[in-house]
Design goal:
This protein is α+β, with helices and mostly antiparallel strands. It has four helices and eight strands, in the order E-E-E-E-E-H-E-E-E-H-H-H. The chain has two domains: 69 residues; 88 residues, no CATH class.
């Protein structure tokens, strides 16, 4: 809740403030009438009005967050943000191709990470596991078009080979 009681020399009342899609919405609800401070039922009525307005803004904020989360799934090249192809160096020194997932989880409300081995699961199997982990933590249903689009964004073997060559040249 972002209803705050302000009691300064210039203003006495409630301020409602929310950030929605990069824009700040801020409104003031005075607890003064005819130069005197409101008390009792009148004060409670102003507070309820402020809380009602905050509830409306909170709903808009959630809607904007959900919309932003959906549009932020893919980068400008069509790759899935948060699922990366990496060459992981094992303790033995061997290089293993993996999909590395690192995302903000809507499920546990913190950043989660995991890797899925391409050698162990195969390209399609590893991608499926990576997308399933991703959608589970982003709370995306498997029946949605977004899920189907995520699965369809699987990199090809040729793309992965090109990334491997590019990484070798950097060393």
């Amino acid at each position: 809740m972002s209803v705050e009681l302000l009691d300064t020399t210039r203003f006495h009342g409630f301020r409602v403030r929310r950030q929605i899609a990069g824009k700040t919405y801020q409104e003031y609800f005075s607890l003064k009438k005819d130069g005197k401070r409101l008390r009792g039922a009148a004060r409670a009525e102003v507070k309820k009005t402020a809380e009602d307005r905050d509830a409306v803004l909170a709903k808009q904020q959630e809607k904007a967050k959900a919309q932003a989360a959906k549009t932020a799934l893919f980068d400008k090249d069509g790759k899935v943000r948060g699922i990366l192809f990496r060459m992981k160096t094992e303790k033995s020194g061997t290089q293993t191709p993996v999909f590395q997932i690192g995302i903000m989880s809507a499920k546990v409300d913190k950043i989660v990470n995991t890797t899925v081995s391409i050698n162990l699961h195969g390209l399609s199997g590893a991608w499926q596991k990576a997308v399933d982990f991703y959608t589970d933590h982003k709370k995306i249903s498997k029946r949605t078009q977004t899920y189907k689009k995520l699965l369809a964004s699987q990199p090809t073997k040729a793309q992965l080979d090109a990334m491997k060559r590019k990484r070798r040249k950097k060393r």
